[in-house]
């Protein structure tokens, strides 16, 4: 079970960093995709990372 929780924490961390990367890209000038598209991607990826982080915390707490 430790492998599953480690995998969930790792996946959530990668998704949260990816969302942060999209958010920072939306703040730079001259980005190809429009800022709104980058911000929507950042929100979706960070939201998925947050949900997986909650699942990882629950899995750690339960098992």
Structural class: mainly alpha
Taken from the alpha-carbon principal axes, the silhouette is elongated
User: Could you tell me how far the N terminus lies from the C terminus, measured between alpha carbons in angstroms?
Assistant: 7 Å
**For the residues shown, what is the average pLDDT?**
94
Give the count of helical stretches.
Answer: 2
Number of domains: 1
Largest sheet: none
- Count of individual beta strands: 0
Describe this protein's structure.
By secondary structure, the chain is mostly helical. It has one domain. It is 86% helix and 0% strand. It contains 2 helices and no strands. It has helices at 2-27, 35-62. The chain is elongated and about 45 Å long. The chain starts with a helix and ends with a helix.
Which short descriptors sum up this protein?
mainly alpha; single chain
Short synopsis of the structure:
With 63 residues, the chain is mostly helical.
